[in-house]
Design goal:
The complex is a heterodimer.
Chain A lengths: L2 H13 L4 H7 L2 H29 L22 E6 L3 H10 L4 H7 L6 H4 L6 E7 L3 H12 L15 E3 L2 H5 L6 E4 L6 H10 L3 E5 L9 H9 L5 E4 L7 H10 L6 E9 L27 H5 L9 H5 L11 H17 L6 E7 L12 E8 L4 E8 L9 E4 L2 E5 L3 E5 L7 H5 L10 E4 L4 E4 L3 H9 L5 E2 L2 E2 L2 H15 L7 H20 L3 E4 L4 E2 L1
Parallel strand pairs in A: 1-2, 1-4, 2-3, 4-5, 5-6, 7-10
Antiparallel strand pairs in A: 7-11, 8-9, 8-18, 9-10, 11-12, 12-13, 13-14, 14-15, 16-17, 18-19
Helix pairs in contact in A: 4-17, 9-10, 10-18, 14-18
Chain B lengths: L8 H27 L6 H5 L6 H9 L1 H24 L3 H18 L21 H14 L9 H8 L4
Classes of the chains: A alpha/beta, B mainly alpha.
Chain lengths: 527, 163
């Protein structure tokens, strides 16, 4: 080998006593490392100061760090027995939130450890004891889930029997049910909610709260005069960053907010509610023998059985109000929870069926303008089902804007009055997002590098609390269960549901009647 | 290989300087990851294209593996950086660094037809700075400079004590 000479000469060198000069050569890296350490500390201090100065200038210090409060589960005897009405895909998520899961899901997730976070979910001390669905296949899925011995949060398998009810009336009449979760098509939401409240059952109802104008007051008054706990299904606001957003609004970081822009951006058949085919393109199961069609229709106009209507009911105004009921409800609730805007003075809607030219009633492109003159505020909703470019959810104030999605991004406006000095001094750069709250890190972070800015802008983040990925639907259900036990009022309560119902029905009326619709606050009527 | 004792002082100087510069860079890359709260390689691995795409996806898919990779990457960088600056186990540090950088390169090589959503901070065609730095470490491994300027002198002395 060529190294023989080499190592011999080294050997000669190393067998001599260590000379002072050689020692210096050996330690040549030490001063370099010293300079490195000095620079590293300088850089770290500079970054920390810059960050804290920016956060301080924006008044964002001491934002609360999200935590999950431990539930007061009560004793074993305080078990809450839940019945689920309508067991489709949404109800399966509800069951997961309650701490129950279908055996097939457990099997499918076993390989990739996909249920790790679900297992970490706290046990809510509940049992699913009733399933009501007009479709045998769906009901059986619900029963299998409720009876599964695999539970979240180390809970013991429920020992209570699980019963299938043929009608929701039958379930509501049963004394063995304490609370119901309603996840049927929208036209059933209000009638079942009213009946459930009259039967003294606590209610978790999927959005939208109502389907028609004449359901609003009866629902509101029945729930209001009952002692039950009502929660509307709007999980977005349970995301930990919502608390941060609330604080940002409270501290007036953005200045006077005069425009809120909310959007829907989807571009797929599934996103346009065409859902009667499975992933292989074959029709999903279901026929008149296995589906109680008359009950499914309920008070809706009598039509012959249709698999299209059964799976794609969102397309038809007989069963819901399209984008407004399905997606604007979430947007509205998010804005209302933050700004308490309530019912608008007027609404103008406009749109059409421009891309998904099937038999649908619902618009696939829809724009609604909600005016709040008393608040000097316009709420805009722009929905699009044929292009998925992300347009965010923006709160726009004179001094800055907040993009509130999976993460929060705040940009300071170049013409801001409040931050004029800081912009001139170069402390604040109005050209990009300045501060972002990323639920992964659990703290406020000043955005520095181009890459970080890019990822923050794209919202490539997942929600986590204390390092655990948390399902926000679970948090919303947990709030409901906690309120049932404590008698407190949950966030998506009947007042919020009422305001949402009126606002959505106003927008729908404006679209259908092609006119500007107003709210008469004295007579509490849509005019 | 040229006998290290026969290197001209200018040759020694450039080899040691190159080693210090790369060591400094790699050491800071390691510390930067340590200092960013909750830093993770997930976003980098998500962008992975070409032959390591499947491997990167496997890493991201499991939180345990991802944590291990993040830990090894951060501390690997710090140890390689220290090795290069101090001239300690120079050859091992150089080779490990070359391999690590080459893996980075293979995750997002600037080949024609591969599109990345994060723009590169330079203009590249096939060859990137990462590839060049990796090759520079190969050079440092072939011409190890720790034996005449670095703690490797002491290591050698210790190892040859009883010979």
């Amino acid at each position: 080998m060529a190294t023989t000479d080499n190592s011999q000469s080294r050997k000669v060198m190393t067998q001599e006593p260590l000379k002072r000069r050689t020692l210096l050569k050996a330690l040549i890296g030490i001063p370099v490392l010293g300079v490195f350490a000095f620079e590293l500390i300088k850089k770290y201090t500079y970054d920390q100061e810059k960050k804290s100065r920016l956060i301080k200038e924006l008044g964002l210090e001491n934002l609360p760090v999200p935590t999950i409060l431990k539930s007061n589960k009560g004793s074993k005897s305080d078990l809450i027995r839940v019945g689920i009405i309508g067991y489709g895909s949404r109800a399966a998520s509800h069951a997961n939130g309650l701490g129950f899961i279908h055996p097939a899901t457990v099997e499918a997730s076993a390989k990739n450890d996909g249920l790790k976070d679900w297992f970490a979910q706290e046990d809510l001390n509940v049992a699913i004891t009733g399933i009501c669905d007009v479709f045998d296949l769906h009901a059986e899925k619900g029963l299998a889930t409720a009876r599964n011995t695999v539970r979240a949060g180390g809970a013991e398998p429920s020992t209570l029997p699980v019963k299938r009810y043929r009608t929701y009336e039958e379930m509501l009449n049963d004394k063995e049910i304490d609370a119901v979760m309603i996840a049927t098509p929208d036209h059933h939401h209000a009638p079942i909610s009213i009946a459930a409240a009259q039967a003294g059952k606590h209610i978790y109802c999927e959005k939208a709260p109502v389907h028609t104008e004449d359901q609003i007051m009866p629902l509101y008054e029945t729930i209001k005069n009952s002692k039950i706990t009502y929660q509307l299904g709007h999980q977005i606001t349970q995301s930990p960053i919502f608390q941060q957003a609330k604080d940002i609004i409270k501290r007036d970081i953005l200045g006077k907010i005069t425009l809120v822009e909310t959007t829907t951006n989807r571009n797929s058949a599934d996103g346009a509610w065409i859902r009667h085919l499975d992933s292989n393109g074959n029709p999903k199961p279901g026929d008149e023998k296995t589906i109680d069609w008359a009950q499914w229709l309920g008070h809706a106009p009598k039509v012959p059985f249709s698999i299209d209507r059964f799976y794609n009911w969102t397309k038809f105004f007989d069963y819901d109000i399209g984008l407004l009921g399905q997606l604007f409800t979430h947007e509205y609730d998010a804005v209302n929870q933050l700004l308490n805007i309530g019912i608008p003075k007027s609404v103008v809607s406009s749109g059409g069926i421009y891309y998904w030219k099937d038999n649908r009633d619902m618009a696939d492109t829809l724009h609604c303008v909600f005016e709040y003159p008393d608040r000097d505020l316009t709420l805009l909703y722009s929905a699009m089902l044929a292009n998925s470019r992300s347009r965010g959810r923006f709160f726009m104030g004179h001094d800055g804007s907040m993009d509130l999605g999976g993460s929060i991004n705040i940009s300071v406006d170049a013409s801001s009055t409040k931050y004029k000095k800081q912009i001139e001094a170069g402390i604040i750069d109005p050209s990009g997002p300045m501060v972002s709250f990323n639920p992964n890190s659990g703290k406020v972070d000043a955005v520095s590098s181009a890459t970080e800015k890019y990822y923050a802008a794209r919202g490539l983040t997942t929600t986590s609390i204390n390092g655990i990925q948390v399902d926000i639907t679970y948090l919303h259900i947990k709030e409901w269960i906690d309120c049932i036990r404590s008698g407190k009022t949950p966030s998506a309560n009947i007042e919020m549901a009422f305001q949402e119902a009126v606002t959505c029905i106003m927008a729908h009326k404006s679209y259908v009647e092609k006119r500007r619709v107003e709210w008469d606050p004295v007579n509490r009527k849509i005019v | 290989m040229k006998d290290i004792e026969k290197y001209k002082s200018s040759e020694k100087f450039v080899l040691v300087t190159l080693r210090m510069l790369i060591g400094w860079h790699i050491l800071y890359e390691g510390f930067a990851k340590l200092l960013i709260p909750n830093w993770t390689s997930a976003s980098f691995l998500k962008e992975s294209q070409w032959i390591l795409k499947g491997f990167s996806e496997w890493i991201i898919s499991s939180p345990g593996v991802l944590n291990a990779v993040d830990f090894l990457n951060t501390w690997g960088l710090i140890l390689i950086g220290l090795g290069l600056i101090l001239g300690l186990f120079t050859r091992i540090a150089s080779i490990s660094g070359a391999i690590l950088l080459f893996v980075y390169y293979l995750n997002n090589p600037p080949l024609i037809g591969l599109e990345y959503s994060v723009p590169a901070e330079g203009s590249y065609l096939v060859v990137s700075k990462t590839l060049i730095e990796s090759m520079a470490l190969v050079v440092l491994a072939v011409f190890p400079s720790g034996y005449f300027a670095g703690l490797d002198i002491l290591v050698e002395k210790y190892l040859n004590r009883n010979k």
